[in-house]
Structure formats: C-alpha cells, structure tokens
Amino acid sequence: MDRRILMTPTIGFIGLGTMGEPMAANLLRKGYALLVYNRTPGKADRLVELSAEVASSPTDIAARTDVIFTMISNDQAIEEVYFGEDGLFSSLKPGTVIIDSSTISPELARRLAAASAERGAEFIDAPVTGSKPAAIDGTLLFMAGGQAQTIETHRDILLAMGREVVHMGPSGSGANAKLAHNTIVGINAAGLIEGMAIAAKSGIDASAFLRIVQGGGAASKQAELKGQKIIDGDYSVQFSLALMLKDLKLSSVLTDTLGVSTPMLESAKSLFQLGQAAGWGELDLAALAKVYESSIGKTIGGSEADAAKAP
C-alpha cells in the first residue's frame, strides 16, 4: 500500500516557484504527505497529481501541520506570509517547527526565530545551494541556522530534498552563509561571462574556449551550469537574474553592517543592475551575457547578426 495513504498531512510547504515546486515534489515522492500553498493560484497542479493537498492560506497551513517549509522570493513576501492577516503567525501551534529555505536578510531570519519562540515554536533558517537542477534531482545542500538538535531531528526530511545538511550556527547563520555564498556565485558568473566576452571579441570559438575554462584553473560550478547556456543563448530560468541581484543587494547591506570591504561584490552588483535595467531580470542569471554582448556587438556563441536580432 502507498505509504502516503496512511499519513496525515503534517508537513506544510509554502512557495511553489522555481525551487519550491520541485522540492515539494521530492517530499511527496519520498512518501511524505503534504499540505501546500502558493500565493499565485495554479502552481500546485502538478503536486496535486502527486497526492498533495492544497491549503487555503498560510493560516490554514499553520493550523493543520507540525512542520512547515517556506521557500519564498524576498523579504517583503516573507513578511506577508508570516505576519500578514492570514499569515502563519496568526494560528501557529506551540511545538511547530518552521524551516525557511528562502534567501532573506539575516536580520529578518533572527526576527522570525524570535517571533516563533514567542509562540512556542522553533524556526530554522536553512537556505539552499544548487539552483533548479539540484532542486529537481534532490541534491540540494542546506546551510542551517538554529538549534542543532532541531536540525538533527529533521535531517531525514531535509535529505528527502537534498544531499547534505550543514549546521552553520545560531539563528541567522544560515542566512549569513547563503549571502556569502551567493556573493561568490555572482562574482564567478560575472567573471565567467567577462572572460567569454573577451574570447568572443577576439574571434575565438566559444565552445572551444569553454573547454579550456572547464579544464583549467578557471573551472567553476558557474562554468558548468551556465557556460553552454550562454553559448546557446538559452536563458530559461535555473536562477533568475533578478534574484541574483536581490541576493547581492542583501549581501551589500550585510557587509556594510559587518564593516567588510567588498569591491568585487559591488562591481558584480552593478553589472546585474545593468541587466535588470535592460529588462532581463526574469531571465536566467546567465542573461548577464547580454550586457556584454551589447558592448562587443556580437553574441558570445554566435555573430554580429545574432546580436542585432537579440531582444
């Protein structure tokens, strides 16, 4: 008998976007019963086919579940989901564990932890790395801030969606780690694209150059994930340019607070701001290449004519 038939929906999942939907799907495939909610209707259709139940609001989730995951795009949306009129905190039960895998400010993560504790619940900030491919494959890495015992107790649930869980420290530490990590991602992506633009303008074949990058000291996860997408002009979203810019802005605020000088972060942020201003925010972050293509007058993987036809 399907194990899910025997289980009540004790896990809630809020946020069914690029990352949240495949994460929730992996929980369902591992036999967990799920009550799901998304602010935009229709996002749960595929999960319903996998036996998920749809909640009417975050309040509904809080009233009916014991473990709640949130995977939401930004601080403002998190505020609404947690503190809004129909938010989680309006009906949160004592003993509930909330695990937020969004990329948010560490200050907000600590505030959510304090507000949860006031209600007799626990909050874990556990953002992830791996982007959409890892969310689909169930190979995400969770960087978790909060009580070590709570994280350990829920390790099996996390590993239903990922390959590793690393405890980073007290509340807010997961958020801090994610911003530091995504600072490197943004800088690496910009560096990869800048190098590919130099090669393209020099008349070097992009595919041949990417082989050199991947086989040498410039090899990186960004080269692996984005190199061929840039050559193909494939900007289908694994992680959007707008979200990358949002994370770099959060990291800039954090580093100002910490007093850390970050010239490379600021340069990468400025480049992604150019991409956002050009209207490419909802494309994959690899669309930063279009900023450079506009400058060199040709597409990195193609020709001057291709660049002229590009939107």
Order of helices and strands: EHEHEHEHEHEEHEHHEHHHHHHH
The best one-word shape is globular
User: What integer value in Å does the Rg equal?
Assistant: 21 Å
Number of strands: 9
Largest sheet: 6 strands, parallel
InterPro entries: 3-OH-isobutyrate_DH-rel_CS, 6-PGluconate_DH-like_C_sf, 6PGD_dom2, 6PGDH_NADP-bd, HIBADH-like_NADP-bd, HIBADH-related, NAD(P)-bd_dom_sf
Domain 3-hydroxyisobutyrate dehydrogenase-like NAD-binding: 172-292
Protein name: NAD(P)-dependent oxidoreductase
Domain 6-phosphogluconate dehydrogenase NADP-binding: 10-169
Please tell me about this protein's structure.
This protein is α/β, with parallel strands linked by helices and 311 residues long. It folds into 2 domains: 3-170, 3-Layer(aba) Sandwich (Rossmann fold), CATH 3.40.50.720; 177-309, N-(1-d-carboxylethyl)-l-norvaline Dehydrogenase, domain 2 (Orthogonal Bundle), CATH 1.10.1040.10. Helices cover 51% and strands 12% of the residues. It has helices at 20-29, 45-49, 58-64, 75-83, 106-118, 131-137, 148-153, 155-159, 173-201, 206-215, 221-232, 241-258, 263-277, 289-296, 304-309; strands at 11-14, 34-37, 53-54, 67-70, 97-100, 122-125, 128-129, 140-145, 162-169. A 6-stranded parallel β-sheet has the order 3-2-1-4-5-6, sandwiched between helices. Strands 7-8-9 form a 3-stranded mixed β-sheet. Helix 1 (20-29) packs parallel to helix 6 (131-137), helix 10 runs antiparallel to helix 11 (221-232) and helix 12 packs antiparallel against helix 13 (263-277). The longest helix is centred in the middle third of the chain and has 29 residues, at 173-201. The protein is globular, with a radius of gyration of 21 Å. The model is unreliable at 1-9 and 307-311 (pLDDT under 50). Keywords: NAD, Oxidoreductase.
